[in-house]
Design goal:
heterodimer, A: alpha+beta, five-stranded mixed β-sheet, 5 helices, 32% helix, B: Uridine Diphospho-n-acetylenolpyruvylglucosamine Reductase, domain 2, 3 domains, 12 helices, 25% strand
């Protein structure tokens, strides 16, 4: 079936099987491999992107469900080569270790601040409960998000 | 993991969806947010050959004050239930419980109707609406009928919905200032409850339902009848598992679940009695 999705502002249209997951559409059709596949069971959040402005786990959404929608991935955050404030905050606060969870973590964190611009430490921890960091680097991730919120 | 192949049809209305599902029978499933169904399909625990996507039936996403109850469209997302001012005022237990479903990403996509129709005894929403005495409105080829929550859950992931029926609305009685509590016991964030309790109490009246204490969500009627007869919270909570047939799994034995249910019901009633 034909699926049309605007990814990072660029309109795309691809023929896919109905069972194609959004994360595979993003990685294999749109060739944007910044979005990682982690647990593949909607637990870990590595595949988090924004679908129509809200954080969502792209491993648990069919590309067909996103047809006609707009997706933002980690590649779509920088403007004119300038990193998004959340990306900068992660860099400055050592919010990543191995980096595997980072694209999803950053997308979830931006989604969190869109809904709650000035969260407390506790609210950041709760708000990111759907994202796992196997390096267990949560402390600096929370610090990064709070730093971005205070900019 | 990718689900097994299936055909995909998108419905623009409840009528169209019911018509489509009728053509394909038992092999077809409705797809709402997909956050219960797609994981099952990846694991081949569900293998429908046809999905009827109802995610765009936007006129089934609403929260309305209907006098003595609140009417919630089946395709209302958990996030919208959680943040609804109408529900926070009139059915705070449900708004609060919706905030415990999965995580933010899941609550952006998952729907109240999907959660109920999925009939998972470990889900937070089936037990909460059961405790609240909700009524589910379902639509089939011959029109609509209403099913009380207490008559809806038939077995593990099995409900009173016929194959060609679709859940369209959830009617939840207003709580009228009743005390309430939602207890969810798990070991890690985002996990299903090992045991959960949704409870409310208003003078002699009460509703208590248990999450993950059997093959269906369980109405703890013995607790409510003890309270109605004037039992103390502690004495009533001792009956928490009377109506339940909990099962053992990797997280908990039957004995542990039974113990947890009593402790959590006591905590819930203490909070609801304040």
């Amino acid at each position: 079936m034909k699926v049309s999705i605007t990814i990072n502002g660029s309109a795309q249209s691809h023929d896919v099987e109905p069972r194609t997951l959004l994360v595979h559409y993003i990685r294999d059709q749109a060739k944007l491999t910044g979005t990682n596949i982690g647990c593949d069971t909607s637990s870990c959040g590595a595949c988090t992107v924004h679908l129509d402005g809200e954080a969502a786990k792209s491993c648990t959404i069919l590309a067909a469900q996103a047809d006609g929608g707009a997706v933002t991935t980690i590649e779509g955050l920088a403007t004119n080569g300038e990193m998004h404030p959340m990306q900068k905050a992660f860099m400055e606060n050592h919010g990543l270790q191995c980096g595997y969870c980072t694209p999803g973590m950053v997308m979830a964190a931006i989604g969190l601040l869109n809904e709650n611009p000035k969260p407390t430490d506790e609210e950041v921890r709760l708000g990111l409960e759907g994202n796992l960091c196997r390096c267990t680097g949560y402390h600096n991730i929370v610090k990064s998000v709070l730093a971005a919120a205070n900019k | 993991m990718i689900p097994a192949a299936f055909e995909y049809k998108r419905a623009g209305s409840a009528e169209e969806a019911i018509n489509l599902i009728g053509q394909f029978g038992d092999e077809a499933k409705f797809l709402a947010g997909g956050h219960s169904l797609i994981p099952l399909m990846k694991l081949r625990l569900a293998q429908p050959t046809m999905l009827v996507d109802i995610g765009r039936v936007k006129d089934l996403s609403y929260i309305k004050d209907a006098g003595d109850h609140i009417a919630i469209g089946a395709l209302t997302r958990h996030m919208d239930v959680e943040k609804s001012p109408v529900l926070s005022q009139h059915v705070p237990l449900l708004a609060h419980a919706a905030g415990y479903v999965g995580d933010a990403q899941v609550r952006h996509r998952g729907t109240i109707g999907g959660s109920i129709a999925h009939a998972d005894p470990a889900g937070d929403i089936p037990a909460t609406t059961l405790a609240l005495g909700a009524t589910y409105v379902v639509q089939g080829p011959k029109g609509r009928r209403e099913i009380a929550a207490k008559d809806f859950y038939k077995g593990f992931l099995e409900s009173a919905l016929a194959a060609d029926e679709m859940l369209v609305e959830i009617k939840v009685p207003k709580m009228n200032g009743a005390g309430w509590s939602f207890q969810k016991f798990n070991r890690r964030a985002v996990d299903w409850a090992i045991v959960g309790v949704a409870a409310w109490r208003n003078n002699g009246d009460s509703g208590v339902a248990l999450v993950n204490m059997g093959s269906t969500p369980v109405l703890a009627s013995a607790v409510s009848s003890a309270l109605a007869k004037g039992a103390s919270v502690a004495d009533a909570a001792a009956h928490a598992a009377d109506d339940a047939e909990p099962q053992a799994d990797l997280n908990a034995s039957v004995e542990y679940r039974t113990h947890l249910a009593k402790v959590l019901v006591r905590r819930a009633l203490e909070q609801a009695s304040k």
